[in-house]
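Lab channel / #folding
Pinned by the channel admin:
"Please post every new chain as: sequence first, then the structure tokens as a reply. Keep commentary short and put observations after the output so the thread stays searchable."

First post following the new format, from NK:
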Amino acid sequence: MSQDLEEYHEIIEALKPMINEPEFNQVLLQVAANVPPQKRFLLKMELKRLARPCIRLIDLRGLVDGKCQLYTHEGRDHYLDEIAIETLERQVRIFGEYTIGVYEAVTNTENNFRVMHRKEQQLAKQKKAQTAPQAIKKEFYLAPLIEFGNIPQRAEERMNFSVNIEIFNDANKSMQATTIDISVSGLKVKVGKEHLVKVGEKLTVQFRGLEKEYSLDKRQGIAYTVGSIERAKDDQRLNLQRVQDAPNPTFDKFFESFIHGNKRRYKVNLDNTFQAIQNKTYEQYYIPNFTSIPVFIEKSEKGYHPKYALANDCNREEIQYWANEIQDLKIGYLLSDARIKHCLSLPKGQQETFIYVFNHVKGDKIYFYSATIQELDAAPHLKHLFFAYGSRKVSWRIYKLQLTDISPEQSYQPLSIANTINESVKRQNQKPAPRLMSRLKNISHVALLTNITDDTSTEYYQRLKISRDQLPQLKMFGHPRNRLPDTVTVYRFKYFNQRRETRFLLRTPITVNIDGHNYEGNTEDFSTQGLRIELDTPFKSKENSLIKITFPNLQKVTTKYALADLPYYVRQLSRDNSVLHLQALVNEHNTTAKHFFDALIKANRSKLRAYRDEEEVPGIGEALRNIYARNVMNVAYFLRKEDIDFVPDATATWATTNRLTNLLHYKSESGFLNLYPLYRNTMSKHDFIPSAMHNLKPNEKPIMREVFVAFDPSKEQLSDAIKSLVSEQFIKHEKRREFISQALLHGQFIALKVFVAKTGRPDIEKMQSELNYVGVYALHKAKQLEEKLWSVTGVGDLVDVTDEVMRRYEFSEEKIADNHKFPVTHKIQKVGIEQLLRS
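Reply from TO:
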């Protein structure tokens, strides 16, 4: 039996007795109803082959593990053992006579030495695959690198069209060429590699292939300049642009008419539109799912000031952390002029620092404390005290702060298709309104704040001892309440997954009754039918469980409503079980919560602060989103599911060459990144990504893990050059420090925070015009692209946290600085004097 039909072995066995029956075809259709028609035909042919009569004699002496004897069947003498005799008689009853199927069954019994040997080999291969490292296929880990916001727009339609042309340079030297695509103001042509052409050179083109059918001027060519050159192995492709100071209205009119009349026949070139749809879809997956907070910095004569922040559903809680007791956001404390200037003084690609944060609640007032690593180094006697005390607070945070310069013009993201398509496209391609640009004109940088706090680092800092008598000295890191920071306005870009109700910020004490146990906490925000709360003591509960909430402070402002033991369902839990998203139980008996909060909103509309889904300047959220997409500092990655594996699908970053991108370019190809460090140690796979993807739900907050990487590019094999371990795989902190030391000894150490989340569905509305456009000319390609993009199931972020980890384990600043240098690809072996003398 061929390998192609091995998977249908059971069907073949079931159909053997029916092969000579008149109902065979009908039975075949029923038994193999789920088999593709082509395979079903092969099954029928295989069964016909097995049923053909056979005259071959069988001699199994020395070929089977059994004693053979003479066995005569229908006048033919065979030498068979007992198992073979039983098999032959059974198969003859099935087929009705001695056939090829009978012969093959008898010569492939389980005690046949050949069959036994084959099974042993297969078993040995399986054991080897389970015990030995799997052969590494580099291609499995490679993912194409895309650029968010890179939307190549065309001012006019290009048509795929091949026609012979003749090109003349300034010396009147002729070149024979062929067009690839054409537009009124440009051409893409293919010429032989032997011709010497340079960018900017002026050329004259004669359309020889069109002159035969159309009345074109054979004496006067059309003037072009060379915009760019793509050189291949056998030819070169020239992108030509019309010379603007040599107009030819007659030719323009002819080409416009020619393209309009033939674009459905020869098809419009859609390469840039497909690229735009792909890039936009990946953006739609990424932007709602990162946990970092982009803060946009304004530059003035007085210095740098944080101005706007971009919110999504995954970073809202982190932004809310900075709300004080009256819901004023104080995130500006983190981004002082001095801290911004310090980061900007560092080399490009290293304009970053780490900030350690906690807050203290006293007398219903929240006091914020923060210190960069440089500020702590300037007060060494308080450094360990700050870590020890802060890490014991529930509010403890470690932020990575990164800065990059931006341009307000990056807020403009037109469609990839030309204005001439229709009025709707023209309207969508309009540049941002002057009022909007006036709000952005002084924005010079974006600061990215990423919460990288985890249990491992917190536990390490908690091992440090506290000197109680020194605690008052930590006031120097406190932010005085009488010196207000810059006001940061939070905007949320619009996408389809918006909440049904406006949520208002409100922090008020609550008591939560869960299965008869009371927990204290505070609300974070509310709507008429929902709450988000944070508990002082985490608890374990299941989603959809019913809890009861009492509002002691709100009860003081109303006598109309009894705000005790109001029922809510738990709809979502944070991973630490301290933040709960709740939905009110509303029925004919339970309307108190809905009516009270509805009345509260109506009476205090001017005082309550809502998340800014309604923008005071239309389009500002979208503009900030576009700017950030053009300046992604970390590495975004995307996963798709293949069988049971979640494999790399794409990556995206605007970062220049740095330590992380240098690692990911190792053993990759041009235009790709190698995500091998996320998947493997030398001997085994990491199970972090598959286990996270199996447990996560779409639009749930990303899971974060810390990964340690030892990188030695002098090694030839990928598995030798990159050794990575998830932090949880180390038993003790001492083992982590030992791993870092060994990595520094042989090459470079890199620590990553790996975020992973499940994708929701992309906002097709953002791409509807382009999807409609490609659907007209290439519907099958549009469907293929849509299927490919819908196969993306995971999205995540890679953040380099190496310096913070090395400082945590108390490596010197000198070693930290040296670790920024790229390790050499090939090491020079030291040769001793004895070796030289011997040679």
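NK: Confidence is low (pLDDT under 50) at residues 131-136, 828-839.
TO: also worth noting, The chain has five domains: 3-119, 159-267, 293-492, 504-610, 634-818.
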